[in-house]
Design goal:
The complex is a heterotrimer of chains A (419), B (417) and C (91). With 417 residues, chain B is α/β, with parallel strands linked by helices. In chain B, 32% of the residues lie in helices and 22% in strands. Chain B has 13 helices and 16 strands. In chain B, helix 7 crosses helix 13 (345-362) and helix 10 packs across helix 11 (311-325). Chain C has 3 helices and no strands. The longest helix of chain C is centred in the last third of the chain and has 22 residues, at 69-90. Chain C is globular, with a radius of gyration of 13 Å. Classes of the chains: A alpha/beta (419), B alpha/beta (417), C mainly alpha (91).
C-alpha cells in the first residue's frame, strides 16, 4: 500500500511482467506476434452497420477498417462479469487483462490483486451503446435501457477490469485521443516508479466508432478509402481499428526476485502538448516529447535501435513525424530502423499505443523488428523502413510514439532486460 | 534538469500548493460569487425544462446561471466549443488570473493541464443524434469529431495558455475531477511539471443523459437532499471547477498567494459492483490519503462529501467515513455542497475543491441544504441548512464514482513554508 | 437571383456558418478559400453543409478539391445537373 514513506523512496525501475491483447490481427499475444512476423494485415472492407429496424434511418455501409474477428458480435457476456453483457470496448479490455494477469502469474485470489492499480486509456468509450441508446430514445421514443450509463461510461473498461479481477488500487481512465493508452502505460509506470503502487495493470481499449461517429470521421476527410501506407508516396489517410492491449507493470527487482519473465523495462516516458492546433501536427511538440522520454530513460538518441512510429498514413502526420525523427536522430535518422504497425492493426485510437508498446516489447524480448507491407516510398521521407519481413533488432533500446489528435503526445522508451 | 535543460525527475518529492481557483456553476460564474451564495444557503437546483428532437422533460436540475457564451468567446470559437469545454476554459481563466499567471509566464513545458470530464461534448452528441434519428438526415457533420472529443477542454486550455507539459483527460464519471487533481498532484510532486491547471467540467443537462440516469434509478424527482431522511436521488448539474497547483518552491519564488497545501491523495476501487458503492473502497482511499498527507484522522475538521443524495451512496459514504475516522467521525463537519450546485459529474470534484478551499479560507463549513432531518443510516454532523463557523485547518474533498472508483484529496492550511 | 447566384449565396452561408466572423466580410466568387483562413477541417464542414443543403454527394465523388467559391459553385451546379438527369431518366 502507498504510504508517506514509500513516496519518498528512490525511484524504482519498472518492468512489463505480463501482456494481453485482443486485436484485428489476433486474439492473444502469440497470435498477434505471429501476424506481425508474417506481416499479415487485418485491414479489410467491412460492412459497418447491418442492423435494420423499421424506425432506423441508418443504412448499411462499408468502409475499410481493422476489426476484431475473434469476439462474437454485439454485447459480450464474460464469465468474470456475469451481471450483464458489456459494451465491446470494455469487453476487449477485460479479455486482454485476463491474459495479461495470467501471464504475470497473478491468479485468482492473489493478494496483490487487491492493491493493484488499473489505468486504461480510451479515446471514445462505449460508442455502440451510445448509438443504440440514441436510436432507442430519438427514433423509437423508448425509455433508456437501465444499463445505458454503465455501458456508455468512458471508464467502463477500467471499472470492468477492476471488478472482473478484484483489483482495488487506484483505478481510472485516461483520454488523450490517439495517445490515450501510451499515456495510461506511462502514468502507470510512474506510479510504480515512485512507489505509489506496487503493481499496475495498464493499457487501452477501443471499439470501432459506431455509425454516428464513424460517418463523421469519414466526412472529415482523414480516412483512407484504400489502405494504410505509412510514409508511402501515395498515402492518403488513416484506417481505423479496434481492440485492447493490456500490460502488467511491476518493480523490476520484484519480478526478478520471483524469477518472473520480463518482456522489457519501461525505461522512460515523455508526455507533451503542442499547444498549437487541433489538427495540424507540430514537429516541435513531437520532437520534445521524444527528447523527454529519452532524458527520462537517461538514454542518448544514438542508442535507439528501433522506432515504432505513430505513422498513421496521413500526408502531414507522417511528414511531421519524419522531420521530428530527423531532429532527434540527426545524421542517423535515415539509418535507424522504423516501422508503423498501424499498417497491420489499423489505428485503434485509444488502444493503439498499447498495441504498439506490446509489439515493441516483444520485439526487444525476442530480438526482431515488426515489419510493415512495402509500398512505393515517399522520396521526401528518408527513413529506413522495415518492410515485409522482420529484421533482427540490434540493440537494447526502442521508442514507441503516439501523437494524438488535438496535439497531445506520448513517447515510451522501452529497454531490453537481459534474462 | 539534465544537461539538455530537460526536466528529469529524480523522485525527490516537492510539496504541492494551490494558488488559484475558478468555477462556473448553477450558483454563478466565479468562485467567490458561488461562495457568497453558499453562505446564504442558496439552492441552484430548480425545475428545468429540456427539449430535444420532439421530446420534452421537466425535472430538477442545476444549470449554470448568469452565463452568456458571447461574454467569453467569439462566435467563431463557439462553433467548436461544446458547453463542457466552454465552462472549463472560463474556470481556468479565472483560476490562472487568480493565481497571478498569464499565458507565457514561465517555461511552457512546466505547465501541465490535467482535467476531468465524464462525457465531454454531450450536447454536440445529442444534436447529432437528433439530426440522424429524428430529422433523418444521413449525412454526419465532421464537426462532431472535435466537438465531442473528450480531450477538447484540455486542448483549448493548453492552446490558450501555451501549456506544453503533461496534458490529458481523466474520465471516471462522478470522480473524474478529483482523480484529475490527484494525477496533477503526482505530476507536480515528482517534478514532471512545476505547475498544473487541474479540476474538471461537465455539461450533461439534456434529455438523453436525463433518460439514461433515470433508467439507472438514481435521479431525484424533487431536489437533492444529501444525508437527509426522505432523500430520493441525485440531480443533474453543469459547471466547472478549476484550480492552479504548483510546487511550493515555485509559489514562494513568485510570492503567490497560497490557499492551502495539497498534502495528499488517495485512490482505490471497490472492485465490486458497477453502480452501487461498497464501504471498503472509499475507506481505503481515505486511509491512503491521510497516510500520504502525514495526517492523523483527528486533525480533519471538515469533509466535503460526495453526498449525491441517493439512499445508497449517502449510507455507504457515512459508513466509510466512520470506518476511516472512528469516533472522530462524529466530531468533524461533513457536508455535501451538491445540495446547492447539483451533481456536475466530471466537473463536480473541481467545484467541491474550490468550495473546500474557500471554507478553509473563511473558517466556515458550507451547509448541506434541503435537509429535513436525521435518517437511520446517516447520523453525523452534516451542517444542516445553515453554514457553520469552525476552525478548518485541515480538510478533505472526496468523490466516489459509478464502477466503484474512489478519489480523495487532503488539504492543509497554515503550512510551514 | 439566377441559379448561379443562388448557389453562390448558399456557399457564402455555409462558410459563414463555419466562421461567423465572416458575416461582415464581402464574399465574391473569385475568393479563394485559403484567403478566408479556412483550415482543412473547416473546409470539410463547408463541404458537408453544401451536401446537406442540396442532398449531393461531393465527398464520395472526390469533388471536394475546389480552391475558390466559383469552383465550388460549378461543382454543385454540375452535380445538380447530374441529379436532375437521373431523375428525368427514371421518370
Amino acid at each position: 500500500m502507498a504510504t508517506a514513506r514509500s513516496l519518498a523512496r528512490a525511484p524504482r525501475r519498472v518492468a512489463i511482467s505480463g501482456m494481453g491483447i485482443v486485436s484485428p490481427i489476433g486474439r492473444g499475444v502469440s497470435s498477434f506476434c505471429r501476424a506481425l512476423r508474417e506481416c499479415r494485415s487485418g485491414i479489410a472492407p467491412r460492412t459497418l452497420f447491418d442492423e435494420t429496424y423499421p424506425s432506423d434511418p441508418r443504412q448499411p455501409y462499408a468502409h475499410l477498417a481493422a476489426a476484431v474477428e475473434d469476439v462474437p458480435p454485439g454485447y459480450v457476456l464474460l464469465d468474470e462479469l456475469p451481471m450483464f453483457a458489456l459494451d465491446r470496448f470494455a469487453a476487449y479490455a477485460v479479455i486482454a487483462a485476463r491474459e495479461a494477469l495470467h501471464d504475470a502469474g497473478f491468479e485468482n485470489g492473489d493478494a496483490r490483486r487487491a492493491r493493484a492499480a488499473v489505468i486504461v486509456g480510451t479515446a471514445v468509450g462505449g460508442d455502440n451503446s451510445r448509438d443504440f441508446a440514441s436510436h432507442r430514445l430519438f427514433a423509437r421514443g423508448q425509455k433508456a435501457h437501465p444499463l445505458t450509463v454503465v455501458r456508455t461510461m468512458v471508464n467502463a473498461a477500467a471499472s470492468g477490469v477492476s471488478i472482473a479481477f478484484g483489483l482495488g488500487g487506484p483505478v481510472f481512465n485516461i483520454s488523450s485521443a490517439c495517445a490515450s493508452s501510451a499515456h495510461a502505460i506511462g502514468e502507470a509506470a510512474r506510479m510504480v516508479q515512485f512507489g505509489f503502487s506496487d503493481c499496475a495493470v495498464a493499457g487501452g481499449a477501443e471499439s470501432l466508432p459506431a455509425y454516428t461517429l464513424f460517418r463523421s470521421w469519414q466526412q472529415m476527410r482523414v480516412l483512407s478509402p484504400d489502405g494504410c501506407r505509412p510514409f508511402a508516396a501515395d498515402r492518403n489517410g488513416m484506417v481505423l481499428g479496434e481492440g485492447a492491449g493490456i500490460v502488467v507493470l511491476e518493480p523490476l527487482d520484484v519480478v526478478r526476485a520471483r524469477g518472473g519473465h520480463v518482456y522489457a523495462e519501461v525505461a522512460g516516458f515523455g508526455m507533451t502538448a503542442d499547444a498549437r492546433d487541433w489538427v495540424i501536427p507540430d514537429v516541435d511538440g513531437m520532437t520534445r516529447c521524444m527528447e523527454e522520454a529519452l532524458a527520462d530513460a537517461d538514454v542518448g538518441s544514438e542508442e535507439i535501435a528501433y522506432v515504432n512510429a505513430h505513422g498513421t498514413s496521413t500526408d502531414r502526420g507522417d511528414a511531421a513525424e519524419t522531420e521530428a525523427l530527423a531532429r532527434l536522430l540527426g545524421v542517423r535518422s535515415s539509418r535507424v530502423p522504423v516501422s508503423s504497425t498501424k499498417a497491420l492493426h489499423g489505428h485503434a485510437l485509444g488502444a493503439t499505443g498499447a498495441f504498439e508498446a506490446i509489439a515493441t516489447a516483444i520485439g526487444l524480448d525476442e530480438g526482431w523488428i515488426p515489419p510493415m507491407p512495402s509500398a512505393e516510398r515517399d522520396p521526401k521521407l528518408e527513413l529506413d523502413l522495415v518492410t515485409d519481413r522482420p529484421r533482427p533488432l540490434e540493440g537494447d533500446v526502442a521508442i514507441s510514439n503516439s501523437f494524438g489528435f488535438g496535439g497531445l503526445n506520448a513517447s515510451l522508451v522501452l529497454r531490453r532486460v537481459p534474462h | 534538469m539534465n544537461a539538455n535543460g530537460l526536466h528529469v525527475s529524480n523522485g525527490a518529492p516537492h510539496r504541492v500548493v494551490i494558488t488559484g481557483i475558478g468555477s462556473v456553476s448553477s450558483l454563478g460564474v466565479g468562485a467567490r460569487p458561488m461562495w457568497s451564495k453558499m453562505m446564504d444557503s442558496v439552492c441552484g437546483i430548480r425545475p428545468t425544462r429540456v427539449t430535444s428532437g420532439g421530446l420534452e422533460a421537466i425535472f430538477p436540475a442545476a444549470q449554470v446561471a448568469g452565463y452568456d457564451p458571447l461574454d467569453h468567446f467569439t462566435a467563431d470559437e463557439l462553433v467548436w466549443r461544446d458547453p463542457y469545454a466552454q465552462f472549463a476554459v472560463v474556470a481556468a481563466r479565472e483560476a490562472m488570473a487568480d493565481a497571478g499567471l498569464k499565458a507565457g509566464d514561465g517555461d511552457p513545458s512546466e505547465l501541465a493541464v490535467i482535467l476531468g470530464s465524464g462525457g465531454g461534448g454531450e450536447h454536440a452528441r445529442e444534436d447529432a443524434a437528433v439530426r440522424l434519428f429524428v430529422d433523418r438526415k444521413l449525412r454526419l457533420n465532421p464537426v462532431l469529431v472535435p466537438k465531442t472529443n473528450l480531450q477538447a477542454s484540455v486542448g483549448f486550455i493548453s492552446i490558450e495558455f501555451g501549456a506544453t507539459g503533461p496534458s490529458f483527460i481523466v474520465s471516471t464519471g462522478c470522480a473524474a475531477a478529483t482523480h484529475a487533481v490527484a494525477q496533477a498532484f503526482l505530476v507536480v510532486r515528482h517534478g514532471l511539471a512545476k505547475r498544473a491547471i487541474t479540476g474538471g467540467s461537465e455539461a450533461p443537462v439534456m434529455i438523453s443523459v436525463l433518460q439514461a440516469f433515470q433508467a439507472a434509478q438514481v435521479l431525484s424527482t424533487t431536489t437533492c437532499r444529501p444525508f437527509s431522511r426522505d432523500r430520493d436521488g441525485m440531480t443533474l448539474a453543469e459547471g466547472a471547477g478549476v484550480v492552479v497547483i504548483e510546487s511550493l518552491e515555485s509559489a514562494r519564488e513568485r510570492g503567490a498567494h497560497i490557499y492551502a497545501e495539497l498534502a495528499g491523495v488517495g485512490m482505490s476501487a471497490d472492485a465490486k459492483n458497477s453502480v452501487h458503492p461498497a464501504e471498503r473502497g472509499p475507506a481505503q482511499a481515505l486511509r491512503i490519503a491521510l497516510d500520504t498527507a502525514h495526517i492523523r484522522p483527528e486533525e480533519v475538521a471538515y469533509i466535503n462529501a460526495h453526498g449525491t443524495g441517493t439512499k445508497i451512496n449517502d449510507r455507504v459514504e457515512t459508513n466509510a467515513v466512520k470506518m476511516a475516522f472512528g469516533d472522530h467521525a462524529r466530531k468533524l463537519a461533513i457536508s455535501s455542497t451538491k445540495s446547492m450546485h447539483g451533481h456536475a459529474f466530471g466537473g463536480v470534484g473541481g467545484i467541491e475543491l474550490v468550495a473546500t478551499l474557500l471554507a478553509m479560507e473563511s473558517d466556515v463549513a458550507p451547509p448541506t441544504i434541503n435537509y429535513l432531518g436525521e435518517d437511520d443510516d446517516c447520523d453525523l454532523d452534516y451542517v444542516p441548512n445553515e453554514p457553520q463557523p469552525r476552525r478548518i485547518e485541515t480538510a478533505i474533498s472526496q468523490s466516489f464514482a459509478f464502477g466503484g472508483l474512489n478519489a480523495v484529496v487532503v488539504l492543509k492550511r497554515d503550512i510551514e513554508l | 437571383m439566377n441559379e448561379l447566384e443562388a448557389i453562390e449565396q448558399q456557399i457564402y452561408d455555409a462558410i459563414r456558418k463555419v466562421k461567423p466572423s465572416l458575416q461582415t466580410i464581402p464574399l465574391a466568387p473569385e475568393t479563394p478559400f485559403e484567403n478566408l483562413g479556412l483550415e482543412s477541417l473547416e473546409r470539410a464542414i463547408v463541404v458537408f453543409e453544401l451536401e446537406d443543403a442540396y442532398d449531393l454527394s461531393i465527398l464520395d465523388e472526390s469533388l471536394d478539391t475546389f480552391e475558390t467559391i466559383a469552383e465550388a459553385r460549378d461543382v454543385v451546379l454540375m452535380l445538380l445537373g447530374r441529379k436532375q438527369k437521373r431523375a428525368e431518366g427514371a421518370a
